[in-house]
Amino acid sequence: MLTRQVSMRLCSLFIFSLFFMLPSSSLAQSEPGEHDAVINAVLERLDSEDKAVVIEAALALPELVEKSDFLKLMDALPKVSTERARRAILIALGVVGDPRAGKLVEKYTLEGTEAVQIEAVLTLGKLKHKWAVPKLTRILVDSSSKPRVRYAAAQGLGILGSREAMYALEQASARVQDAKVKLAISNAIAYANNEIDNETIEPVNKAGERDVRRYKGVNYQFYHPTVRSRDGDKPRLMACFHDYDLDWDTVFAYCQKRARDSQLAVLVIHYDFLEFPDFGTFNLGGRRADKVFLEIADHVAKEAGVEAREMYLYGIGGGGAFVQRFAMAYPRRVARAFAASSNFLHLDSDELFPEGLKPSPLAKDISIDLFDFVKMDIKLVFLEGGEVLFSATQFKKKLEDFARDRGITTRYEIESGSDFAKAHGLWQQAQEYLFWTRAELKRRTNQRRKKRSRRDGVAN
Description:
Elements: H1 4-21, H2 24-27, H3 31-45, H4 51-64, H5 70-76, H6 83-96, H7 102-107, H8 114-126, H9 132-141, H10 147-160, H11 163-175, H12 179-192, E1 211-215, E2 218-223, E3 236-241, H13 248-262, E4 265-269, H14 289-304, E5 307-316, H15 318-329, E6 334-341, H16 370-374, E7 378-382, H17 388-406, E8 413-416, H18 423-435, H19 438-459
Parallel strand pairs: 3-4, 3-5, 5-6, 6-7, 7-8
Antiparallel strand pairs: 1-2, 2-4
Helix pairs in contact: 1-4, 3-4, 4-6, 5-6, 6-8, 8-10, 9-10, 9-11, 10-11, 10-12, 11-12
């Protein structure tokens, strides 16, 4: 979540702008009347066609609501049309904490987008009523439920924190088989017991060792080689990013083998659901995933003597979404990148980041220049999901048009990835692209020969 100070500052600015829009008669009313006018204006703005206005309203609403706004929120929830607006009202209902909202909130655990279902599940926990325990427990232990909704159910029980909720978490941990769900349960229990430490910075592990370390509440795995280059150069850092399934161990295993063979350092951050539910799109509005990555990368680089000014990046699924956005937002920190996902940023200047190129109120520090991107050594693989081939074709066409209009020589590569859907196949592709293995060198040499033959043929 936003820090209290930042959130309140945004909220104050938003209220200030609202009062200029309200009729003068409302300003002359008593304080309760002023509050009602502001809440009504915020709820109205949640249905604005301007996405920036919706974001500002969504940020302000949870900070403004009072218990007396319960009926207004209940009335507004079924009427709003966007995911962000529904999530904002659900969060606000959690702030109000009136158990009477339970039945309506429960409805949204089964309806709408995954993000709305997750917010509804979390809100059930925030209502702090014991009847939510069996509902959340059923979601948690149901293997057919979406993984991220199950993680949210664990967190909801942790937020509820009652004796019945803690017992349900302990029993569920004994019943479920999925290691990632077990981890979510463990995090929820730690949260309920106030055991999460967001301050401690543990020392970096020794060279050649693989271990889990903790940095300000975030777990990461880091490896750096014992043997250093004779010319004194520091080993470069390769950062790898897991999918929304949170399987960071598999990703680390792939990357560490390559790092060991090539005398690279490798970093994998565990973006757990408790702190980073939307890490693939930087978790805007919460603890920023991009800022955390940069902070940890710079920390391990300094402590272990690793070069991290320009990094090799690999990401799959949610991790691929993160890598593409990171490369576009921080081009000077990227040596070479490979990203595979079905959720890439669109090249639309009217769409707010992280969906498009337009600066967002949630990330005013991020400004994307397509010139930097088309000159970057990056390969995007559009994975199956939605209209993947159409999306890849449109994305590629927009970049080609941009480069052609400006006379730019490009270096990026784009593919649709139906042939590389499995993680191992993607990793093989990533190795060839990132490190130019023999197979990749041979392919590129053959491409150059073919181009040269075509030019010679035309010349003759």
